[in-house]
Design goal:
There is one protein chain. This protein is 24% helix and 24% strand. The protein is α/β, with parallel strands linked by helices and 611 residues long. Strands 1, 2, 3, 4, 5, 7, 15, 16 and 17 form a 9-stranded mixed sheet that branches. A 6-stranded mixed sheet has the order 8-9-11-12-14-13, covered by helices on one side. A 5-stranded mixed sheet has the order 22-19-29-21-30. Helix 12 packs antiparallel against helix 15. The longest helix is centred in the middle third of the chain and has 19 residues. The chain starts with 20 loop residues before the first strand and ends in an 8-residue tail after the last strand.
Length: 611
Amino acid sequence: MSLLSRRGPLAVAGASLVAAVALSGAPAVSAATPNASFRLTLLHNNDAESKLVTGNSLANYGGVARFKTVVSRLRAEADAYSDNQIANGLKRKGTILVSSGDNFLAGTNLAASFAKGVPWYDSLAFDALDYDAATLGNHEFDFGTARLAQFIQGTTDVPFLSANLRFNRDPNLAPLATAGRIKASTIIEVGGDRVGVIGLTPPNLKQIASPGPRITILQNVAAFAQREANALRAAGVNKVILSSHLQGLVNEEALIPKLSNIDVVIAGGGDELLANPSDTLIPGAGSPVGPYPKPIADRNGRQVPVVTTQGELRYVGRLTIEFTPGGIVRSIDADDSGPVRVSGNVADADVAERDPQLAADVEQPLIDFSAAINSNIIGSSEVALNGGNPDPIRLKESNLGNLVADGYLHAARRAGRPAQVALGNGGGIRSSIAAGPLSLGNTFAVLPFSNFVARVADMPRSQVKELLEHGYGALPNANGKFSHIAGMSVEVSTACTAQVTNTNGTIATAGSRVRDVTLDNGTKIVDDGVVVAGDPIDVATLDFLANGGDGYPFRGAAYEVLGRTYQQSLEDYIKDAPGTGGLGATVTAAQYPIGGEGRITISAATPAAGC
């Protein structure tokens, strides 16, 4: 349980009349009800991911300075609303703002925050928006708990929520949990009423981020969400919001039928857009996947409104919902609900001016930092380097994936710890590079995380095959675990059995998709699906993967960190002289042709000899 939040109602004059549409099955309540009902305006967003400058996400849209202007306008509109019930004291009103996770993300802007120090630009932006609660997503843990502590310490008093994580063993986050800055749920006092908010973090956090060994990750998210909901109800809170970051709306849709005592669900992590035909959307930025809100039946058959919106500060979600005095959802105001776009396009009628303080304190320093690293030219490329997400970088060979993996091999040679092969994940590659000059900024945009190149010595050939089986196990579907390789070539048949890997790296179902693996010197490691006996293999990879990230079955194999981040390995490889194994500042089309040179061959055909 938690301390009360600090937000009270704004004082803005004026009024507007709007139409309300009743939820299916909601009981009718007379205007003469003696106890006050409550009109809640829930403002929300998810997956801001450090896209703090207009145009970071989409040209002419987004940016935290414009986002704040839109939030301020929506808060003022909510506070200005009045009707006969409010005038007669039969209804109260209030507004809250909630983030449902991934509040920052690796990239040029976060690199600028790291260079600046506490408070980060992300923290300054977050604080200026005056959130009432924020869920901890997965990307908050990408750089470990020390960095997350820095982000939180740079904000004022907003509670960060997760009902399925425990922090008492982590020296960086335990003090923040003790101080109430991190908790399972919080109670927000607003408009003379109380609203409970519960947070959920992805239960596969260890596989997709770097929380370290001291965070306890509880898997049964339904049980812990329900426990918090019941506790809030027992404390007399009859309006409960679940702010969930389960990385896809489908996961919240599967969760809600297991729950009760939850009134609203905010989904995060999937970047889906819910909207209605009357909503004004960003042109060309994706179509809605459902209505706003999307009703899903809970364990008792009650319809729970689910909301989410695209991330990167493109939209502010707004759900205006009325509760009976007993806390039952009576209706949703259709006219004042839906995604509200954040426009910087002067041709749009709803263009939002930039908040001057955020423009000066956050956006301009980030623009200056980006300009500085983008003007630091480290070489040139004769060919466009394709890091498109998901195609090709999470689906098939890419010339950029090859270049990055070659950088890992170069880092091992450079450290005097050479490896025969290298392996990296497509999810660690976040951008493409156009043909022409190569800047330091390009390397940060492509490889933004804090991954270090690592070397795993003497890996059995059978385990090398397991690593590759894992990397190609999701095909033909896109997945961030897709393996980009160097020092070898691989032939894969998706007609064969996909490997199933347990969360501890053990193999639940052996895979037979990897048919052939050949080292660059011609040595066969796998021949027609059979591991060839021989010497073990030294593998250059990332510490994230060696620790089991993206589910890779290294299974605690000893590794050594080689002292260079993966961004630095790419920078070094491009800049270093050919005599040292580098590219001499030129990426040629002959070395890195579009589509790659055939390191990874993927077929849907069944091998002639069978699987």
